[in-house]
TrEMBL record:
<feature type="domain" description="tRNA-specific 2-thiouridylase MnmA-like C-terminal">
    <location>
        <begin position="282"/>
        <end position="359"/>
    </location>
</feature>
<dbReference type="InterPro" id="IPR046884">
    <property type="entry name" value="MnmA-like_central"/>
</dbReference>
<keyword id="KW-0547">Nucleotide-binding</keyword>
<feature type="binding site">
    <location>
        <position position="125"/>
    </location>
    <ligand>
        <name>ATP</name>
    </ligand>
</feature>
<feature type="site" description="Interaction with tRNA">
    <location>
        <position position="338"/>
    </location>
</feature>
<dbReference type="Pfam" id="PF20259">
    <property type="entry name" value="tRNA_Me_trans_M"/>
</dbReference>
<protein>
    <recommendedName>
        <fullName>tRNA-specific 2-thiouridylase MnmA</fullName>
        <ecNumber>2.8.1.13</ecNumber>
    </recommendedName>
</protein>
<dbReference type="InterPro" id="IPR014729">
    <property type="entry name" value="Rossmann-like_a/b/a_fold"/>
</dbReference>
<keyword id="KW-0808">Transferase</keyword>
<feature type="active site" description="Nucleophile">
    <location>
        <position position="101"/>
    </location>
</feature>
<dbReference type="Pfam" id="PF03054">
    <property type="entry name" value="tRNA_Me_trans"/>
</dbReference>
<comment type="function">
    <text>Catalyzes the 2-thiolation of uridine at the wobble position (U34) of tRNA, leading to the formation of s(2)U34.</text>
</comment>
<dbReference type="InterPro" id="IPR004506">
    <property type="entry name" value="MnmA-like"/>
</dbReference>
<keyword id="KW-0067">ATP-binding</keyword>
<feature type="binding site">
    <location>
        <begin position="6"/>
        <end position="13"/>
    </location>
    <ligand>
        <name>ATP</name>
    </ligand>
</feature>
<feature type="binding site">
    <location>
        <position position="32"/>
    </location>
    <ligand>
        <name>ATP</name>
    </ligand>
</feature>
<feature type="domain" description="tRNA-specific 2-thiouridylase MnmA-like central">
    <location>
        <begin position="205"/>
        <end position="272"/>
    </location>
</feature>
Length: 363
């Protein structure tokens, strides 16, 4: 097969490309330029897609002996990922930009271009597994549960998955680094990128305020309605947040306060005790079924609401593209805008992704 290997400049994508070559595929490496000012998107292990990263990707491609190109996706990344991120926060929701990037950039924009150029598949360094059952792809958790990225891939369609390759799905990160060392790849010990790639300093509040300005509102006690303080915008908060609330006086019982809900129209941020964070029912819309098999009846499953954590047994019911999920145990810090992913448990590991949807409400 002709395979386009997406090479970020990190160790995972480099080893994924190497394995595609070893498998006998005709491989071409490509680095996605996602910023008009690439020198601004890395601070140590934070951020990605810098000139440094493109050089690292090129050096890896040279060692592997494959052609290498840089494709400029900066404008589309800004429109589809960055502006969506800003808009969601302005609306009082908490988005996951990695989910959006995989859906809109790596497996929509990139895959579309790859297919137009005659490639059969796109290979990435994601830690997830793909299997084919009755001719239909199934997305599953990776062998390395600590690095599993099936959550951020759960918004992909069957058509996209049928042209995807995840060569690292059966591997552990330590083994991948050791393999990179053996292959002479200079990125073997390069730190992993983390947090939001286009906010390399990690200050999300400042990033949003620079784009949205100040939108003053009140911090309100969810139980009494008392005004506890003021803030500069609901975009500076997310459900479950404890620190940085800007409230001078402690709660009457001396316990911490948390953000319980956001009301962008009124500018109100409601806060209260940890007891108010427990969620028993999740409502979500825009359901996506990676294997093309929508649920037809209430289904026992495992749900996940964050890329790392927020996992609990549940029963999911679906009506068209609307999903209602009843949790067996309450979850804390579940926010509108997050993605809920449903898994079918596998006792031998590698839970199968059933579907995903965007959280619209909780109760």
């Amino acid at each position: 097969m002709r395979v386009l290997a997406a090479m970020s400049g990190g160790v995972d994508s480099a080893v994924a490309a190497a394995r595609a070559v070893d498998a006998g595929h005709d491989v071409v490496g490509v680095h996605l330029a996602l910023s008009a000012k690439p020198g601004t998107l890395r601070t140590g292990s934070r951020g990605c897609c810098t000139i440094e990263d493109s050089h690292d990707a090129r050096r890896a491609a040279d060692i592997l002996g494959i052609p290498f190109y840089i494709w400029d996706f900066a404008e589309r990344f800004t429109e589809e990922v960055v502006e969506t991120f800003v808009g969601e926060y302005a609306a009082g929701r908490t988005p996951n930009p990695c989910v959006t990037c995989n859906e809109k950039i790596k497996f929509e924009a990139l895959l579309e271009k790859a297919m137009a150029l005659g490639f059969d598949a796109v290979a990435t360094g994601h830690y997830a597994r793909l299997s084919v059952v009755d001719g239909v792809p199934e997305l599953r958790r990776s062998a390395d549960s600590g690095k599993d990225q099936s959550y951020v891939l759960a918004s992909l369609t069957p058509e996209q998955l049928s042209h995807a390759m995840f060569p690292l799905g059966d591997s552990w990160k330590t083994d991948v680094r050791a393999e990179a060392e053996r292959r002479g790849l200079s990125v073997a010990n390069k730190p992993d990128s983390h947090d939001i790639c286009f906010i390399p300093d990690g200050d999300t509040k400042k990033f949003l305020e620079n784009r949205l300005g100040q939108r003053p509102g009140e911090l309100v006690d969810a139980e009494t309605g008392a005004v506890l303080g003021r803030h500069t915008g609901v975009h500076g908060f997310t459900v479950g947040q404890r620190k940085g609330l800007g409230i001078d006086a402690p709660a009457p019982d001396g316990r911490p306060r948390y953000v319980l809900s956001l009301e962008p129209v009124s500018g109100s941020v409601k806060v209260g005790s940890a007891a108010g964070l427990g969620v028993k029912v999740i409502e979500a819309d825009r359901a996506i079924w990676p294997s093309g098999r929508p649920l037809s009846e209430p289904t026992e499953c495992v749900v996940q609401v964050r890329a790392h954590g927020g996992i609990v047994d549940a029963v999911a019911d679906v009506d068209n593209d609307t999903m209602t999920v009843h949790l067996r145990e309450p979850l804390r810090g579940v926010a509108p805008g997050q993605v809920v992913v449903l898994y079918r448990p596998d006792p031998e590991g590698g839970d199968v992704v059933l579907g995903s949807a965007k959280i619209s409400g909780t109760r």
